[in-house]
Design goal:
heterodimer; A: alpha/beta; 11-stranded mixed β-sheet; about 40% helix; globular; B: elongated
Chain lengths: ~500, ~170
């Protein structure tokens, strides 16, 4: 019976002939000049907060096929049911909150201001428009342009981040395809939570205060980015800047690669707007999963003043007397090629995970243990002038290891990392330097990018296992602390 | 999520009809008569009842459907429900009613505010909220109606239990 339902789902999915819209399309200056009036529709179809569910995409990785599609469907169902269970108390907590009303009030304020599109007030609605309805509207409208703004909000799949997402599309009269498109995505800072239940409790405490404050911030940010990108910059292409970044990143949607590659185009109160290479305008705050190096110069981009000066997280800024001697020693051996301020990039494996494929694996991996890694960052990285990358793998698929080695090499080569720590499938020093003799044994490696000193640290791990840290069953916090302190012992020894 | 859009066909226009499709909890023998006043629709989204397969679900009879559900549900649970006079009058405000399709299941949520008056005096006020879920074969209208009824019946069940003390006064 269940298989039949899955089959129906698979058939439904395969029959959907939806239009995949562009993430980002800039309007030409010439076309922008033809717009003297604009009709606006703002759509918020969802009634309550949802949680993102990660599509396992096994079928895509396996090259398609009904059987694997069934597995995908089954996994999605299981994850969705779990998410529905966890999110229920938060929905209850937000009962009196009306996202539509609050968001539309902000948007209305924006559209009241004089703008180059000469837009009127948006028609606010919960009813989405079909492609046919849009086509008909564009063909028959009195105005020169038609702007649709769709907005959603949801929790990331681990419930630790809130996302508010706006998708704007503008058609000029008689055109089949939009002349302008921008996907704007606000992501909150990652909250401290060990699991989904903790996260829901956090969002929900004190009358859902944290959830409300974050949602308000998200709404403001999306509307503000729309104001800058569409109203101020007329939706015209944002030039690439010298403020390009390529940083490993824990992405709550887990739908694209494990890094953000793009241009930092705005900065405000510690929040950065990045025009990602995939077209999204991402608004991120620096936290455990994302940090912009401090040595970036201020740039003027797309008419918007940009102040790319990363702020030291106050939580990480307290000097540690314990480390002060080490600090002095490090200074004495510091290399000019090493960035002066810290960026800590952490990626760790999720033990016991099913095999993963292609290049999305690091995102999947790094999510569950970010809390543990936070502890490591806080404990060991304060005022550390180096950049540390901690990588991990559940050693289930060679592709992951290859990817991690490549990532690590790249980070070393670009001087973004000083140290790389990897838990890999039988990787040897030779592998790191270009060989590919993988075995199925998990090994731990520590690599000093500057000295190019690479060493196996399996003994540290073995010691950890003997101490009862149960590596195979999971990275416990204490085990991670143990590994981290060992790593830093090695590091300090190497600096002597 | 927002990138795949505009793929839906015409909205689903749902003819909302209440059905008792959930098991009734403990039957309560109540002697008091309740008059259910016309139901108010105070939803922030009065346009849709959610969406199914990317298609908005529409209906213009939410208040009638809720009243039908309250009438029938309370009676089935042992209350004396009357259109004319009652010991108590019940004001029902619909705060939320929507469904959402998941890959293999449909979920629905209904939230009602219930206020009981005895003559001019307010005896009771509470907000109820309940979910329903059922298999999703094809986002069909019957399935959508079914899951909305499950959610409504679950709310009515909670109401019936909660208003007992007020009805016993």
């Amino acid at each position: 019976m269940k298989v039949s339902r899955l089959l129906v789902l698979v058939l439904l999915v395969s029959m959907v002939g939806c239009v995949v819209n562009p993430t980002r399309k800039a309007i030409s200056e010439k076309e922008a000049k033809t717009i003297r009036s604009t009709q606006v529709v703002s759509i918020i179809a969802q009634d309550e907060i949802t949680a993102h569910v990660v599509n396992p995409n096994i079928s895509a990785a396996a090259g398609g096929g009904l059987l694997v599609a069934l597995i995908d469907a089954s996994i999605i169902e299981s994850r969705t049911n779990e998410a529905e269970g966890f999110i229920a108390p938060l929905r209850q907590g937000l009962t009196r909150f009306d996202f539509r009303k609050e968001y539309w009030a902000r948007q209305s304020e924006l559209f009241q201001s004089a703008n180059w599109m000469k837009s009127g007030q948006p028609k606010n609605t919960a009813v989405d428009m079909s492609a046919t309805q849009i086509r008909d509207t564009v063909a028959t409208m009195k105005e020169d342009a038609f702007l649709i703004m769709r907005t959603e909000y949801y929790l990331s799949s681990d419930f630790k981040r809130m996302v508010v997402e706006g998708y704007a599309q503008l058609w000029t009269k008689g055109q089949d395809l939009p002349s302008y498109a921008a996907k704007i995505e606000y992501q909150s800072a990652t909250i401290p939570a060990e699991n989904k239940q903790d996260a829901v409790d956090y969002w929900n405490k004190d009358g859902a205060g944290a959830a409300l404050a974050t949602l308000y911030e998200g709404m403001d940010e999306v509307v503000n980015i729309l104001r800058v990108d569409l109203f101020k910059n007329k939706g015209i292409a944002i030039a690439n800047t010298e403020n390009r970044i390529s940083l490993p990143y824990v992405n709550p949607e887990q739908t694209f690669s494990n890094s953000i590659d793009g241009d930092v185009i705005m900065e405000n109160k510690g929040r950065y707007v990045i025009k990602a290479n995939n077209g999204k305008l991402l608004s991120l705050v620096q936290d455990d999963s994302f940090k912009i190096p401090e040595n970036r110069a201020s740039k003027q981009v797309a008419n918007e003043p940009v102040n790319i000066v990363a702020k030291q997280d106050s939580k990480l800024a307290t000097p540690s007397s314990k480390n002060s001697k080490t600090e002095e020693k490090k200074k004495s051996v510091s290399k000019s090629s090493i960035p002066k301020k810290p960026v800590v990039v952490v990626s760790w494996a999720e033990p016991g995970s099913p095999p993963r494929y292609k290049t999305t694996s690091l995102d999947v991996y790094s999510r569950k243990l970010s809390g543990v890694m936070t502890r490591i960052i806080k404990q060991y990285s304060q005022n550390d002038p180096e950049i540390i990358v901690i990588n991990g793998s559940s050693a289930t698929h060679i592709a992951d290891e290859v990817l991690q080695v490549e990532t690590s090499k790249s980070l070393c080569a670009s001087k973004q990392a000083r140290y790389v720590v990897m838990a890999l499938t039988g990787l040897t020093d030779a592998d790191f330097h270009g060989s590919s003799s993988f075995s199925r044994k998990v090994e731990y490696h520590f690599h000093d990018c500057v000295s190019n000193n690479h060493r196996n640290i399996n003994k540290i791990v073995e010691l950890g296992n003997r101490e009862g840290f149960r590596f195979e069953e999971g990275y416990t916090a204490s085990f991670s602390d143990f590994i981290a302190s060992s790593i830093f012992s090695v590091r300090n020894a190497s600096l002597k | 999520m927002l990138l795949v859009t505009g793929c839906q066909t015409a909205p689903v226009n749902l003819n909302l009809l209440h059905a008792n499709n959930t098991p009734i909890g403990t039957k309560i023998s109540q002697q008091c008569h309740i008059k259910i006043l016309p139901v108010n629709d105070v939803r922030s989204n009065k346009e849709t009842l959610g969406s199914a397969g990317g298609v908005p679900v529409l209906s213009n009879n939410v208040t009638g459907w809720v009243k039908q559900g309250m009438n029938s549900g309370l009676q089935q649970r042992g209350y004396q429900v009357s259109e004319r006079t009652g010991d108590l009058s019940m004001q029902v405000n619909v705060k939320l009613a929507y469904m959402r399709p998941l890959p293999l299941r449909l979920y629905a949520t209904v939230s009602l505010e219930v206020i009981l008056h005895q003559k001019e005096k307010q005896l009771y006020q509470n907000i109820f909220r309940a979910n329903g879920d059922s298999n999703n074969w094809a986002n069909g209208e019957g399935e959508i109606m079914d899951v909305l009824n499950v959610a409504l019946n679950n709310v009515v069940d909670d109401v019936a239990t909660d208003i007992q003390p007020a009805c016993s006064r």
